[in-house]
Structures are given as C-alpha cells and as structure tokens.
Amino acid sequence: xxxxxxxxxxxxxxxxxxxxxxxxxxxxxxxxxxxxxxxxxxxxxxxxxxxxxxxxxxxxxxxxxxxxxxxxxxxxxxxxxxxxxxxxxxxxxxxxxxxxxxxxxxxxxxxxxxxxxxxxxxxxxxxxxxxxxxxxxxxxxxxxxxxxxxxxxxxxxxxxxxxxxxxxxxxxxxxxxxxxxxxxxxxxxxxxxxxx
Length: 196
What we know:
Blueprint: H1 2-19, E1 27-29, E2 48-51, E3 55-56, E4 64-70, E5 73-82, H2 86-101, E6 106-109, E7 118-132, E8 135-148, E9 154-165, H3 171-194
Parallel strand pairs: 1-5, 2-6, 2-7, 3-7, 4-7
Antiparallel strand pairs: 4-5, 7-8, 8-9
C-alpha cells in the first residue's frame, strides 16, 4: 500500500516538473543608426528643427518585432522584442543622427516646449521582417515631410524604402538587417535634407 502511495507521489512530482518548464528568456534588440558625418555647410544651420513622433498608416506599432510570410500573413516574435516602442526608437535615432550631422542649429523632440522653425514629420509604411520562401529580409519604408512651422508650408517630402537581406531567419538576423537598413536611411535622410 505504501509503495502505491510513494509511486503516485513520485509520478506527481515528475509530471509537475514537466509542466513548470520555464519559457526562454525575452531577448531585447535595439535600433542603432550608427554615426553620420558632420555636414560642413547647409541651408538650415540657423534653424531649430522639431522631430514629430512617427505615425503609421496600417498596424499599431509597439515593441513587438513583426514578421510576415506574405502580404496578408503577419505575426510577432514571441521571445524577442525591440527595447522600446519602435516609434520611440525611430524618433530617438532620427534626432540623434540629425544632431550629429550639425545640419541644424538644434534638433528637438516634438514634446519640447521650445519654439521651432521647421518640423520633420514621418509616416511608417513598413518596418518588419519579410520571409518569402528561401528569401529573408528586413524592410523599412518611411516617408518624411519637412514643414515650415511659421507658414505651415510643405517644403519637401520623400519616401525612403530599403530591403536588407538577413544573415539568419530569426529575430536576431532581422535586427541586424534592420539596423543596417536604418543606417542607410539615416545617411540618405541627411543628404536629402542638405539639398535645397
């Protein structure tokens, strides 16, 4: 009788150990645009620029890392995420690279109470990992608009789109490719803003 109870207790302990497996730890990735060259001369050197919080047309943007297998099939990585809300990471990186470039007198977040001469607005069309058969790549597509805040006049607008192959078909590979693509975007954004 005692053997039966001992066997039941042992079986219960073994089964409860299997049911209490820990989930793999969450991996956080960040967006890093790298460094950009200092602009020697430019039309906006005496202007203060505010960078608006990026907007999106389609899905709500969070800290989740999105992937897709087709244009209508989307998902998020379960054990991997961005280190902050993606819109916040984009805004912070844009502010950082524009400050590094020296293209403007000052570059401020939109929440700043200081006055500004110009505003840079952005619209996210895509920022995700695309897997299509054997192909795997990060896609970034963001449109920027430069606006004169005194008149409300649109000075210029441009959509930047990049596709960067991932070294691996997972969140880590996606983050590496997204950072590379965002570095291209940052450099191209500065060149575009520098032009009259």
